[in-house]
Design a protein that fits this description.
Length: about 80
């Protein structure tokens, strides 16, 4: 399971990338922004765009937290 370390939408807004701007400039779709707001998974292309805008690495944004089921299955 992926867990967000930061509020991505807030961090983007602090850089001047509001939801309106991202929709207008077609940076992120509304459905992608909804997934971010709800802490759901995003694709690597979206993660790349976010990292470029925020000038950071993926590990600054997300962390992998294995569920109990994943621990049993893979450990």
């Amino acid at each position: 399971m992926l867990k967000y370390k930061i509020d991505v939408m807030k961090a983007l807004a602090e850089r001047g990338y509001t939801a309106n701007r991202m929709r207008r400039e077609k940076i992120l779709s509304e459905s992608t922004m909804q997934r971010l707001r709800h802490g759901e998974n995003i694709n690597t292309e979206t993660l790349n765009a976010i990292c470029v805008i925020l000038r950071c690495q993926p590990s600054d944004i997300i962390e992998v937290v294995p569920t109990d089921e994943e621990k049993i299955k893979y450990f």
